[in-house]
What does this fold into?
Amino acid sequence: MRGRVRVAVLVDNTGEPRRCVVLQSSGEALLDQSTCRLMLEKARFDPARNRKGRAVAGVYWSPRVRWMFANGD
It folds into this structure.
């Protein structure tokens, strides 16, 4: 199984990812879901900052995540 997924992650003002949205699907639901699950469980961010330097919520626009699984041969 292989594919490329692109997501957007909503990040709160503490840098915690709160929501993930698939922007470009791999065509494989498992890969799309796994990408978002891993982003929400593992990713950590520095929060965005407004003009006054205060931490605010923001959005992280990912590059395409490329999934490749070996078939065991």
Summary: The radius of gyration is 14 Å. Helices lie at 29-42. The chain has a mean pLDDT of 93. Residues 10 and 46 are 12 Å apart (CA to CA).
